[in-house]
């Protein structure tokens, strides 16, 4: 039997995240949309609160440890495999992302110690590494000037020199790249062995040889910094390579790609959050204009705007449920690559459709800055692009459904 109700232990955390969105993010949302690259100092207080909750044991949401715990609570003996149904770090992180993005996507991406690199650490780090990097603020650096969607085309190199790795290369579009304390960098340890040699490395933000060369000006999520990073003979300790340093040609780079199985449902949840915000705002505008939305009357017998609202709401519900499913599978140690891509593809498309249609149906209110609808329309587009574009997600889904490899279906 499938239970679609959220467990009680997660509802409290989700409610706290919603209060953050309502009480902290919404009031300053427009301020930092108009002040791109200005650091949201209000988030420092929230960072201290998150750290306090983690240290007290009330919630384990700070840093990478929020996405995974060294010991799985689902098993009485602390083993890696849960017993029965588990709703852990992935589901909690997903709900927190959903609720805070209901407040503001750009500010959510700027929360200290909650970067996408933290999810990468949680996905592939050893238990020892999780202890060392569990409370860092980690950005994730994958994309380079020479490629976008093809993660296997990494040209940044990592060469082992004694007890240090030496990294060289350029990374672009790094979310929180100038603010995070650490950067998870994808690099190749041996170009002759192809994608199997691509590994991820934890690089301290203040490491010698790592510099921020540019901050991007963007369409949306302006509260979040997006940086270009250069690594020039950047040296880090040998044990800062995430997971195993061995190159397994047969396995390919499944280890680093496992990162996306954790992060794609989170990005889907971000789109679900901003989509819900737009639907709530649109409902208020329509009701104020005298448009009644009924669930007892067929859509084609209602006002055209009401019928469109019902379509958007149904699309939102589908994206929400797909996101929950992908996170639940991750928490329960079930392979979720297909479901992660399905949730990301569906939610990314839904987010742009819902927010832009809300702008349209909102008329002059939707297009003006008197509401946040136009801002949400701009913010939502990135959620259909980063962590794998819409087209890439559909390609992955097709490969999984048809049982074809990346070589067989390009």
From TrEMBL:
Ranges for domain Acyl-CoA oxidase/dehydrogenase middle: 139-234
Pfam families xref list: Acyl-CoA_dh_1 (PF00441), Acyl-CoA_dh_M (PF02770)
Cofactor: FAD
Record keywords, A-Z: FAD, Flavoprotein, Oxidoreductase
Ranges of residues in domain Acyl-CoA dehydrogenase/oxidase C-terminal: 251-402
Keyword Zinc: no
Span list, region Disordered: 58-86
Gene3D superfamilies with a match to the protein in the record: Butyryl-CoA Dehydrogenase, subunit A, domain 2, Butyryl-CoA Dehydrogenase, subunit A, domain 3
Class of the enzyme per the UniProt entry, highest EC level: oxidoreductase
Signal peptide: none
E.C. designation(s): 1.3.99.-
Protein name, as recorded: Crotonobetainyl-CoA dehydrogenase
Originating organism: Nocardia aurantia
Name of the gene: caiA_2
